[in-house]
Structure formats: structure tokens, C-alpha cells
């Protein structure tokens, strides 16, 4: 059985790590290079770096900051934010990223997923999907959750898989920053309908939430930010608890 992955997320704005609630009310959470170093040494399985304002500000991800983070970590490192071309990905991989995450640009130009998978391999391509429930339907949102689309979460996820994405990072905007737990019903449905790994994001508040998302949500990995940034959960303690619950993890 594949081990479940624990993934700290560095949301970057103006070169600093930030964290909010429901995608707003951002507060400073520290220096991304220092945090990356801490998480790499603390037993994180992977690290995700999202330049959350790059798309909104119509600029590229901070390649120099990516390089500084990459120099500190010895675990797989995914970078997202403002990626819209094969050339963008080339630059990030050259600066130390192992994988890239695309979101808004993939919705606007779905062929981008095919092009990136063909050039770099599916294992290198994560598609991030931010969605919230509107009148009972999960609707995909863009530009850091600010712009709703007409896309249904599950339909878009299936298309993403067919186009060659290697995994999906699903963030529930309803759960984000609430610390009330992950959107496990939606995660379980994604897991049952797709054949690629699903990363759960949005809602982690305690170690039980991680247990629940692996058991109930059938997630392959769980991503969190504030509970790690503000030391509410230590990664090694979390992994030991998961192991005690017979959830396979890498210690």
C-alpha cells in the first residue's frame, strides 16, 4: 500500500508566507526559505509553494525565491502561481522545482495540461482546483478563489485527468482556514471517480482531521498550512498518530 503524504503549503505574497481564512484576511506566517528548511528536516513528505497573487497581479512566479527554497529542501517540491506556458515550467524546473501546479491558466486553456504532460511527463504536473459549494453544487473558482466559473468540480477533475495531469490538489474554499476538517465527502467522490492521486487541502485543524481525510475522504495526501506554520501540529507527532491508526506513512 502506498504511504499517505503530509504536505506543508507555503502560500507566498510579496515574498512572505501568509495564511488566511476562506482565501481572505491574510496574516504573515514567516519567511518561506526558513519554513521550507524546517519542514524538510521535520519529516514532511513534500512541500508546496504557491505564489498566490501571481495570477491576479499578472506576473510570473518568483523564480529566484523558488531557487532559494530548493537549495534548502531534500524532498519533492511543487511550485504554482502565474504559470501559463511550457517556458514558465522550464524556468521553474531549472530553478529547483520538482513539480508544478497549474490552476487558472489550465481552466482558461485546457490544452496547456496536455502540452505540459507531453513535454515534462504527467508525474510533473499537478492541477490545483479551488472550489466552493453554490446552491449545493461544487463550483470551480479562479484567481485565488476570486472568480467563479461555470465548471463543476467533478467534471473538471475528470477532464484534467484525461488531459494528462499526474495528480489533483483540491482545495475546498468553504473549509479553507476554518480548522473544521477537510471536505471529505467531495474528496471521497473524487477518489472514487478518478485514478490519479488526490491531495486534500483546506480545513485542517487537528490530527483527527488528517485521520478522517485519509479514512473517510480516501485522500492520497493531505496539505495544510497554518497548523504547521504556527506549530499547532508537529509533523512527526502527526505521523506517529496516523501510524497508530494503521494509516501507512513514512516516518
TrEMBL record:
InterPro entries: Aldolase_TIM, His_biosynth, HisF, IGPS_HisA/HisF, RibuloseP-bd_barrel. Keywords: Amino-acid biosynthesis, Cytoplasm, Histidine biosynthesis, Lyase. GO terms for biological process: L-histidine biosynthetic process. NCBIfam families: hisF. It is an enzyme of class 4 (lyase). This is Imidazole glycerol phosphate synthase subunit HisF. Its EC number is 4.3.2.10. IGPS catalyzes the conversion of PRFAR and glutamine to IGP, AICAR and glutamate. The HisF subunit catalyzes the cyclization activity that produces IGP and AICAR from PRFAR using the ammonia provided by the HisH subunit. It comes from Aquimarina aggregata. The active site is at residues 11, 130. It is found in: Cytoplasm. Heterodimer of HisH and HisF. GO terms for cellular component: cytoplasm.
Amino acid at each position: 500500500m502506498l504511504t499517505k503524504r503530509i504536505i506543508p503549503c507555503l502560500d507566498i505574497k510579496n515574498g512572505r508566507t501568509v495564511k488566511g481564512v476562506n482565501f481572505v484576511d491574510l496574516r504573515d506566517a514567516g519567511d518561506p526559505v526558513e519554513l521550507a528548511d524546517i519542514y524538510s528536516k521535520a519529516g514532511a513528505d513534500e512541500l508546496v509553494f504557491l505564489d498566490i497573487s501571481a495570477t491576479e497581479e499578472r506576473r510570473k512566479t518568483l523564480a529566484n525565491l523558488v531557487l532559494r527554497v530548493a537549495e534548502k529542501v531534500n524532498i519533492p517540491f511543487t511550485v504554482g502561481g502565474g504559470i501559463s506556458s511550457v517556458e514558465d515550467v522550464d524556468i521553474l524546473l531549472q530553478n529547483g522545482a520538482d513539480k508544478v501546479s497549474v490552476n487558472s491558466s489550465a481552466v482558461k486553456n485546457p490544452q496547456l495540461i496536455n502540452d505540459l504532460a507531453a513535454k515534462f511527463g504527467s508525474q510533473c504536473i499537478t492541477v490545483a482546483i479551488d472550489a466552493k459549494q453554490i446552491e449545493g453544487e461544487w463550483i470551480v473558482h479562479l484567481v485565488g478563489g476570486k472568480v467563479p466559473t461555470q465548471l463543476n468540480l467533478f467534471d473538471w477533475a475528470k477532464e484534467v485527468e484525461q488531459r494528462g495531469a499526474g495528480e489533483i490538489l483540491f482545495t475546498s474554499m468553504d473549509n479553507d482556514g476554518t480548522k473544521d476538517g477537510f471536505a471529505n465527502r467531495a474528496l471521497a467522490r473524487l477518489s472514487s471517480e478518478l485514478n490519479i492521486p488526490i491531495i486534500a487541502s483546506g480545513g485542517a485543524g487537528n490530527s483527527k482531521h488528517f485521520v478522517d481525510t485519509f479514512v473517510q475522504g480516501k485522500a492520497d495526501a493531505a496539505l495544510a498550512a497554518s497548523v504547521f506554520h504556527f506549530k499547532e501540529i508537529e509533523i512527526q507527532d502527526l505521523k506517529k498518530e496516523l501510524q497508530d491508526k494503521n494509516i501507512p506513512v513514512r516516518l
